[in-house]
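Today's session is about reading a structure prediction critically. Students often jump straight to the picture, but the first step is always the sequence itself: look for stretches that repeat, for charged clusters, for runs of hydrophobic residues. Only then move on to the predicted structure, which in these notes is written as discrete structure tokens rather than atom positions. Here is the chain we will use throughout the hour.
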Amino acid sequence: MPAARLRLLSLLVAAMVLIFSAPTRADDTTATFPLKDVKPGMKGEVYTIFTGDTIEKVDLVVIGVMENALGPRQDIILVQLLGEKAEHTGVVAGMSGSPVYFDGKLAGALSLKLGVFNKEAIGGVTPIANMLPVIDSAPAAQAAERPAASKTDAISFSARVPLPQTFSEQMGAGSGEFLVPIETPLIATGMYPDTMAQFSKQIAGWGMSMVAGGTAAASPDDAQLKPGDMVGVELMRGDMTISPGCTVTVVEASGKVLACGHPIFSFGSVSMPMARGHVIMTLASAMASTKIMSTGGTIGTLTQDRVTAIGGQLGPEPPMIPVEVSLVTPTEEKKFHFEVIESPQLTPTLVALATYNGIVGSTAYGEGFTLQLDGDIQIKGHTAVALNDLFAPSDVPVPSGFFVAGSVESAFARIYSNPYEIPQVTDIHIRVRALPERRSATIENAWIDKNELVPGETVSVKVQLRPYRGAAFTQEIPVTIPAQASRGNLQLVISDAETVNRTMESAAASSLGQLSGLEELIQLMNRERDNDRLYATLLQPTATLLVEDKIMPNAPMSEISVMNQRQNNGAVRVSNQSTAGEWSVEMHQVISGERTLSVTVK
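Below is the predicted structure for this chain, in token form.
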């Protein structure tokens, strides 16, 4: 045989070996291995990445099948990974979704592991028959129709599958062992250690382990996925990125993708950008080995987040919300630009995290500064939500920047939890100015020169305030008794903004479910008082009608009776007090406390 022909034959044989020894892009008739044929002792292989983009084969052996382990007809195949790498790393965070084959046919995805500190690489496999229905689930367009999330919505998948005693004895694992979902590494770039520390509890509530990672330049080859490749879900991208990552199980010719073998958040129908993932290295640990990843170009949309898998579609990506965070100090201004997903469950925390990360990102920022928040949340078809507040350092061991982030998160939570409509946030602007010194003062006392007044009369209310450090000082508030004020004994409340917001009619009117719509809720939020002002509020013992977001003081009993007799009066409430007048002065520092004075109007 000529040498040239021999070399050609050798190359063809090598190519055939490579083709049949590695997972390939699947078509709509992917050969699958039925669960009923899985038997203890059966040999197979799982495909995953340890470094770079090279998919490697790891041998495994079946220990047994755990029937109804995750629920009715939700069985789990218990396997043991074999070989030097498996013995070194065990089951690794990020392996979720690694395809498992028997006799060259797809049997399922590696999705569970046996606890922590186990020397044996024991894992659970989600059968492919339980994963494939996710591909045929509702398209991403339906995700926009889902109702707003409630506080009881599940955030993480935390199944604990008890190991049967027979398997425990067989493996020498001991009693009381559980199979748990393989951790999903949450890849973060551009995040300061202080940010990770402050938000660690909230991130832990997502059921993920945060690890430092990186980003890679987008490539035309990013969308050329194969089973065993890595994908990331872009929760945030820009100057800071946050992406959970797992392994691809199935790629159909139509571009539909299955991954993970378990949910990320258990949200059901979703619409999140899907990006190519790359493995920088696999970090071996006796407690929990993990893949250190980077994310590449955006390659499509994640549309399903279900019990047995996540599913998506290669192609166009969904829109994200642009976020701009600016921090201004006496010496510099730094701007950070992000995009975040729109999710009632996640967006409030993501924006708060981005805000805090932007604050601590300035070298000129320190804990001696008072922080002034100004910003807005743009919502399609509605008035923008205004963000205005002042935050002074306190004696509690929590950075003032964290309170700023909490205020932003609270505003988003109120918008997303409204029962009227699903808001479409289009833009977010956050500006934080760092002001020198701890600017705060407490109300110590208040008095007026005379307690008997007549309508139209102006009196000067004197308020004694105690700053954080230094001597007490007096601030005057001119108060003019309105002509329509009730005669008799009235209360003049000298207070901070929080007291006014908590006790006045606007706070009562903001009860969810009693307004006519989202716009009314936004109007009420925008009317809340600023905490850098000192307030004087004149209260009189007459009824106030609260009709949706409208406040009607001094309502006569005849009008109240008419309102009460209406059939649809759910948006009408009655308060036992009315505000006869409100006055305030800007103090340029955070005011706290309250005092109540009694006055008589003749």
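Discussion point for the tutorial: The chain is about 20% helix and 40% strand.
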